[in-house]
Amino acid sequence: MFTQLNFLKVLFLAPVPVLVFGANVATLRRKEMKVGDLVKLKGVDDSRAGLIVELTKKKCWRTDALGPKVNWDRVEPEPHAVTMFRSDRLEIPIVDLELLRETR
Q1: Do the beta carbons of residue 52 and residue 63 sit within 8 Å?
Q2: pLDDT tens digits for range 10-24
Q3: If DSSP codes are grouped into helix, strand and coil, which group holds residue 73?
Q4: What pTM was computed for the model?
C-alpha cells in the first residue's frame, strides 16, 4: 500500500538525487550537526536556543526502550552534542536536538 508515510520513506531514503517540486532531494535531507550550529531541544516549546561547542560519543541508557536495569554492554556509544544553553554546558544526544540554524 502506498501511503504518505511510505512516500516520505522513499523520498528521503532514495539512493539517487530526485527532483521533487523543483527541489533536489539531497538538499532536503537532514544534515549532520556540527560545532557552531544553533539548536533547541525537540518537543520543548520555550524560546531558548543552544550553541553546539563540541561533539562527542557517549553511551546512553534509554529506560523506555531498554528497561530500568542498566547493562552498558548492550548499548553502543551514540553522538552527543556539548551544548551551551545560557550559562549551562549540557551533553545532549543529537537525536534529542532540533537544528535551528547551521553554520556555513
Answers
A1: no
A2: 434 444 443 344 444
A3: helix
A4: 0.63
